[in-house]
Amino acid sequence: MSVYVLFQGPLPIKWMALESLEYKVFNVRTDIWAYGVTVWELFSLAATPYPGWDIDDTFIDKLKEGYRMELPKHCPERM
Predict the structure, then answer these.
(1) Cα–Cα distance, 11 to 18 (Å, whole number)
(2) Where are the alpha helices (DSSP H) in 13-56?
(3) Distances in whole angstroms, Cα of residue 79 to Cα of each of 8, 13, 37, 58, 76
(4) Cβ(43)–Cβ(20) below 8 Å
């Protein structure tokens, strides 16, 4: 089941899944993406996700091309 929502304010872009950014779809899969970004934050010792990136029109394009953040220094490989 997907939920479609119209927003009128700022969004947590760096924590949102690609389908949420493009189509405003929210479901269990998009929640898992957001959880993954949060876990990345924990293992990076509270670094900002996508460090050095500007949140602009190219952000979604980079995600579509398959870019993913590097494994944080303090994260075990099995995570």
Answers:
(1) 13
(2) 18-23, 28-43
(3) 36, 23, 13, 28, 6
(4) no
Report the share of the chain in percent with pLDDT over 90: 70
Listed in sequence order, the residues at least 6 apart from 10 whose beta carbon sits closer than 8 Å to its beta carbon are none
pLDDT of res. 19: 94
Spatial contact of 24 and 4, defined as CB atoms under 8 Å apart: yes
User: Is residue 57 over pLDDT 90?
Assistant: no
Which contacts qualify for 57-66: CB closer than 8 Å, 24 or more apart? 59/13, 60/18, 60/21, 60/22, 63/18, 63/21, 64/18
* Arithmetic mean of pLDDT, 66-75: 92
pLDDT digits (tens, 9 = 90+) for 24-42: 899 999 999 999 999 999 9
Count the residues in the chain: 79
